[in-house]
Structure formats: structure tokens, C-alpha cells
């Protein structure tokens, strides 16, 4: 076995040596098994197999060896007598811990104080762990003082724990029945006791003082009237001098708000403000004359005055940093009074003169605050749904219960049973449709169109009603503003598009020509010419036959000679050009004849010389039967005279 080379070297600080030959660093087993049970085994060697310097003994064995006395030498040791038992209520009797504390109490209904500091003494009785709170009596405090909380164990939390002397210390807060107490200091006995129990006390604090109590200790203030401004002089100088301003309060942004007029009076004698309402007849408001009574108006309040009870107390100079003065009321600027923003738009002449002399402001023009009525909202109809006429669908947007559109009654009475008929062909690329003919009927009373197709035998097409009475929209018009076909759109050669089908007008009946002649101003010259050409072609053979009969008829020769004589007689007299138009107005059917009674009325209105013998003879020749007169031949006698 190799000996330890460092054995015997001094083991001093800084002279410790490590054995370089040591290679085993394992630790001996401390557990073993006996009869199948794990038992603790005391190791005989240390780490790495080193010998232990001493046997490891338990603490109980060491204590027994330390206290074991030699029985043979000194005999059996005697047991010490037990200590005398003293109960807690005897040992801790009249031992009380005392703490100085305070709590803060709010004062809501006072102008001189907002909170109150109340100083108390907290006592802790060690014999039964009870506590009490006592408030020293302050003279003339007006508060019931003395015992605030009687002696009892005080709850610490909601779990049922109570305050113990271990929970008490200086500089902490404790809550008792909702009040928070601040412990600031304790007496000498309390300090010694807590330190003896191992509690480290916090440094003491200064007791908080009640501000109102300290204020009362100060000497009474002496009020001295300031000498820089004499209020009596202001009263005598500006008495009965009032600035009048005209203002509005615009509250239209809020629900049910409106713009109302007010008069603001500023009294120069005491710098007070009054706001009066302007009432109008039947405005629906109670006749209260004043919105705000005459009073001084604060402009800027101090920070502590935000919670000032203004509803029960008057604001004094202590709560106001700046009051409203005359320079704050300027025409053309808004001013906020008691939460309402008034806009001053005018003032009276005295106010203008005062501002010019006092502040040098000469330009105070009146501002127009009258609101212009907004333009009427244009009523827009919804898109057309395609059912029925546009006029019928639009009635659903005007009233809750739709009514039929109003009809032109006069037009219906004047044009009743008047129908314009046209012959048309279908413009279609299909060869079978080229020979199809259709009859268009235009009803003047209702501006409706119906189409009828005459049936043709062995054509393979069933004739009959092609389109019932309806208004037809022009293809160039919009859906919102439809333009319907009228009588001026129908003439020979015109193309009519009916719901996607194109028709070409080929011919008309005789009544259409008469209607167009009586309403020539409504038709274009091309339309009139197309109808006249077609009628002339149709009546050419009949006219030739009529001319032959006229040459052979002595009555016609007599008429022409009589007309020529009358024209020569009226050569130097002014001739009227509107004679034919006057007769055509009463000839509704364009037949060329009028009643005798109506004929003489028209001649009387035109101042025609019907008493002349030649004209009487002309009337006799133009008479057709006993009731009718051919006015077309009669007018010829007055149409070629000098114009």
C-alpha cells in the first residue's frame, strides 16, 4: 500500500494540498437489505475509501453523551423541579400595546373643508388579544368623540382571522369595519415588547393634522376694501346703462333641436349678465321671459371648484379666476354661457357707440343668420318594371292606395269617336310577310293604337286583331321618360315600330286628309305633301269627269261669273285672309258645309256685306238644300282681292 505523500503537512489557510495519487472518489453505500427489508447502514469509510476521523453519531446520541454523568462517582442524578405554570391572563394582565393613528373622513356638505383628519389611539390587550379604538376629545369640535370601537376581537379578513399583535407595526394601514387607520407611532412599552419578540419596527411617522382645525387656530382675518376700484363710483357712473346683444342658440345637431333667438343684456353698473327669450305668436312655448336671471357669470374656474355645489351655494371670488366682462361680448363671435354656445349677430346703437369709445371697435356689422330653405328634393321614380303603362306604375309611388291617372276630359269630349285609319305593310325579311296588310286605327280621344289584319283566304295566316288598344312607345325614347306615337307621326311612307315589329304606312282614308288640313300646323310639310299627292292620284279620274260636267252645267258657269263680278266690285276694298279658317273651325267634319244660322253669325263677326244684292245671289247659288251652305265657293269671292 502506497502511503499518502501529503500526510502530515500542515493544514493552514493557503496551504491545502490535494493528493495526486487518489483515484477513487466513490461514496460508500448507506442502504442495505436485511431479511428482505431496506435498512439504513452507517458507512465505515468516507469518499474514496478514506477512513472516517470519528464515528458518525446521531444528534440524540451526542446529546446523551454530553449530558451523561458518572453514576458511580456522583450517584443517580436528581430531576430538576418543573417550572411554575403561570396562565396568560395572569402573566399578561394589564399589559397593553398603544399605537397612535388617524383616519380621513370626507365632508361633502361644507364650503370650508372637503375632508377631515381624526386622530385616534388604538389599544391592543395582550391578555385576550382584544382591541379598542379611542378618539381624544377636541374642544368645540362639534363631533361625538371618545370610544369609537369598544374592546373586542377585531376581524382581519373574511376568512375568520383576527388581528394579532404580530400584525401591528408603525407606518402601516389597517382596516377596521370599513375605515382605514394609519399607524404612525407607538409608546415605549409597545416598542420594547415588539422588539423582544423579534419584530423589526418601521420608523415613526408624523401625525397628520386636520386642515380645518389648523385654520381655526389662525387669527381672524381683517377685511379691507380694495382702494384700486370704487364700486360705488361704478354704480353711480354706469347706472341704467345696459349693453344689448342679439344672439341665437343653434341646437339643430341634437334630436328635436332648433335654432332659437335670445337677447343678452350686460349691465355695466355691476357686470352682471341676463339672457331673455324671444317669443313669437303661436310658437308653442310657455311664455317664460328669462332663460337666465341677472347674475355674474364665471369665465374660468379654479381647479378645486369643479366639484363646488353650485346648486345650493353661490360662487364667490375664491372659486373663480376670471369673470365675463364687456370685452368678451363681440358681434360675430360665439360665447359659451352655462354650457350653451350663443352666436352674437347684432347689437343696439348704444352698444356700438360704447364699444367705439371704450375699446376703439367701430366695425360691428350685422350678420345675416337667416337660413335659406334647402332646394326641394327632386322626386325620382323607381325603374320601370315593364308591367302596364309607365303612368299606371308611377301611381304606386305617389299615394299609398294607387289611383288611375287623370285623363284629359276635354280632349275625350272633343275627339270622341274620331279615329284615324291607315293601311300599312309589315317590313320583314320573311317572304311570306311581304303581302300581309294591316289597318292601323289611331284613337284621338285616348292616343291609343289598335292594329287589325284583314283575313286573306288560303294565305295560311289567321287574320283578326293583331294588337289591342294601347299606347305605343317610340323606340328612341327612354323607359323613364317614354314618348308615345302621336297623329303627327303617321303619314304615307312613315316607318312605325310597334314592340319590335316595323310597319310602313301605305295609304290613309279620307278623314285623315281632312284632319290634317284642319290641323296643318301640327304636321310637317313633307307629311302634308305625301298625303295630298296620294289623294290627288286617287281623285284624278273623278276630277276629270267633274270638269266635263262643270263645262256643260249652266249652274257652274253662273257661279263663276258671279264670283268674278264680286271680286271686281271688292277690288278697292281690303280683303280678309282668315275667312276660310273661321268657317273651318266650325266645320268639325271638314265637309265644306255649315249651317245657315252659323253661316250668318260668322259673316256678321267678320263684317261681311251680306246685304249686298250680288252677295245675296252668291249665297243663294252656294246653298245646298234648305239648311247647308257651301262656304268653300263663297270664300273664293273674297280670296283674290288686293291684300
Automatic annotation (TrEMBL):
SUPFAM superfamilies, alphabetized: EF-hand (SSF47473)
Annotated DM10 domain residues: 93-198, 239-359, 416-520
Keyword Heme belongs to the record: no
Subcellular location, principal: cytoplasm
GO cellular component, as recorded: axonemal microtubule; centrosome; mitotic spindle; spindle pole
Database matches in InterPro entries: DM10_dom, EF-hand-dom_pair, EF_hand_dom, EFHC1/EFHC2/EFHB
Keyword Cytoplasm: yes
GO biological process: cerebral cortex cell migration; cilium-dependent cell motility; mitotic cytokinesis; mitotic spindle organization; regulation of cell division
Lineage top rank: taxon: Eukaryota
Residue ranges annotated for the EF-hand domain, each copy included: 574-609
Pfam families: DM10_dom (PF06565)
A GO MF label: alpha-tubulin binding
Transmembrane annotation, as ranges: none
Cellular compartments annotated: Cytoplasm, Cytoskeleton, Flagellum axoneme; Cytoplasm, Cytoskeleton, Microtubule organizing center, Centrosome; Cytoplasm, Cytoskeleton, Spindle pole
Keywords in alphabetical order: Cell projection, Cilium, Cytoplasm, Cytoskeleton, Flagellum, Repeat
Subunit comment: Microtubule inner protein component of sperm flagellar doublet microtubules. Interacts with the C-terminus of CACNA1E. Interacts with alpha-tubulin.
Name of protein: EF-hand domain-containing protein 1
Organism of origin: Panthera leo (Lion)
Organism lineage string: Eukaryota, Metazoa, Chordata, Craniata, Vertebrata
Gene that this polypeptide is encoded by: EFHC1
Amino acid at each position: 500500500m502506497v502511503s499518502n505523500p501529503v500526510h502530515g503537512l500542515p493544514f493552514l489557510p493557503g496551504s491545502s494540498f490535494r493528493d495526486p495519487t487518489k483515484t477513487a472518489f466513490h461514496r460508500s453505500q448507506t442502504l442495505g437489505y436485511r431479511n428482505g427489508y431496506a435498512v439504513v447502514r452507517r458507512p465505515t469509510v468516507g469518499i474514496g475509501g478514506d477512513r472516517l476521523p470519528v464515528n458518525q453519531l446521531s444528534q440524540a446520541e451526542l446529546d446523551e453523551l454530553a449530558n451523561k454523568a458518572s453514576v458511580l462517582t456522583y450517584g443517580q442524578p436528581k430531576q430538576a423541579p418543573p417550572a411554575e405554570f403561570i396562565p396568560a391572563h395572569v402573566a399578561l394582565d394589564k399589559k397593553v400595546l398603544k399605537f397612535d393613528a388617524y383616519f380621513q373622513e370626507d365632508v361633502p356638505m361644507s364650503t370650508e373643508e372637503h375632508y377631515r383628519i381624526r386622530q385616534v389611539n388604538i389599544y391592543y390587550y395582550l391578555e385576550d388579544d382584544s382591541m379598542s379604538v379611542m378618539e381624544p376629545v377636541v374642544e368645540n369640535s362639534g363631533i361625538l368623540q371618545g370610544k369609537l370601537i369598544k374592546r373586542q376581537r377585531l376581524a382581519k379578513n373574511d376568512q375568520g382571522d383576527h388581528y394579532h399583535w404580530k400584525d401591528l407595526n408603525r407606518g402601516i394601514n389597517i382596516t377596521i369595519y370599513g375605515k382605514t387607520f394609519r399607524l404612525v407611532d407607538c409608546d415605549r412599552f409597545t416598542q420594547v415588547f415588539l422588539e423582544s419578540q423579534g419584530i423589526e419596527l418601521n420608523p415613526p411617522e408624523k401625525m397628520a393634522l386636520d386642515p380645518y382645525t389648523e385654520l381655526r387656530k389662525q387669527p381672524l382675518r381683517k377685511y379691507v376694501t380694495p382702494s384700486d376700484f370704487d364700486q360705488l363710483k361704478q354704480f353711480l357712473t354706469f347706472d341704467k346703462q345696459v349693453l344689448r346683444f342679439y344672439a341665437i342658440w343653434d341646437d339643430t345637431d341634437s334630436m328635436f333641436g332648433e335654432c332659437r333667438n335670445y337677447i343678452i343684456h350686460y349691465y355695466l353698473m355691476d357686470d352682471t349678465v341676463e339672457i331673455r327669450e324671444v317669443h313669437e305668436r303661436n310658437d308653442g312655448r310657455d311664455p317664460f321671459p328669462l332663460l337666465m336671471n341677472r347674475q355674474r357669470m364665471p369665465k374660468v374656474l379654479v381647479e378645486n371648484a369643479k366639484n363646488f355645489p353650485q346648486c345650493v351655494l353661490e360662487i364667490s371670488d375664491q372659486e373663480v379666476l376670471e369673470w365675463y366682462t364687456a370685452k368678451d361680448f363681440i358681434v360675430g363671435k360665439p360665447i359659451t354661457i352655462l354650457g350653451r354656445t350663443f352666436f352674437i349677430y347684432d347689437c343696439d346703437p348704444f352698444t356700438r357707440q360704447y364699444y367705439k369709445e371704450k375699446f376703439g371697435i367701430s366695425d360691428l356689422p350685422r350678420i345675416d343668420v337667416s337660413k335659406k330653405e334647402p332646394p326641394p328634393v327632386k322626386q325620382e321614380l323607381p325603374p320601370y318594371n315593364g308591367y302596364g303603362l309607365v303612368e299606371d306604375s308611377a301611381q304606386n309611388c305617389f299615394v299609398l292606395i294607387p289611383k288611375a291617372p287623370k285623363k284629359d276630359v276635354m280632349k275625350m269630349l272633343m275627339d270622341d269617336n274620331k279615329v284615324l285609319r291607315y293601311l300599312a305593310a309589315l317590313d320583314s325579311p320573311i317572304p311570306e310577310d311581304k303581302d300581309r296588310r294591316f289597318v292601323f286605327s289611331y284613337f284621338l280621344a285616348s292616343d291609343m293604337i289598335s292594329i287589325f289584319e284583314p283575313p286573306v283566304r288560303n294565305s295560311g295566316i289567321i287574320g283578326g286583331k293583331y294588337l289591342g288598344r294601347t299606347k305605343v312607345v317610340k323606340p328612341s325614347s327612354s323607359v323613364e321618360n317614354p314618348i308615345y306615337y302621336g297623329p303627327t307621326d303617321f303619314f304615307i311612307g312613315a316607318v312605325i315600330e310597334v314592340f319590335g315589329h316595323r310597319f310602313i304606312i301605305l295609304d290613309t282614308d279620307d278623314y285623315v286628309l281632312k284632319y290634317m288640313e284642319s290641323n296643318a300646323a301640327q304636321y310637317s310639310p313633307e307629311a302634308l305633301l305625301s298625303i295630298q299627292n296620294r289623294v290627288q292620284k286617287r281623285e284624278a279620274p273623278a276630277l276629270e269627269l267633274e270638269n266635263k260636267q262643270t263645262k256643260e252645267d249652266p249652274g257652274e258657269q253662273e257661279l263663276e261669273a258671279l264670283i268674278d263680278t264680286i271680286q271686281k266690285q271688292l277690288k278697292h276694298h281690303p280683303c280678309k285672309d282668315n275667312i276660310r279658317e273661321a268657317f273651318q273651325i266650325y266645320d268639325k267634319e271638314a265637309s265644306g258645309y255649315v249651317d245657315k244660322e252659323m253661316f250668318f253669325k260668322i259673316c256678321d263677326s267678320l263684317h261681311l256685306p251680306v246685304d249686298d244684292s250680288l252677295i245675296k245671289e252668291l249665297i243663294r247659288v252656294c246653298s245646298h238644300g234648305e239648311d247647308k251652305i257651301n262656304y268653300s265657293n263663297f270664300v273664293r269671292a273674297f280670296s283674290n282681292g288686293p291684300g
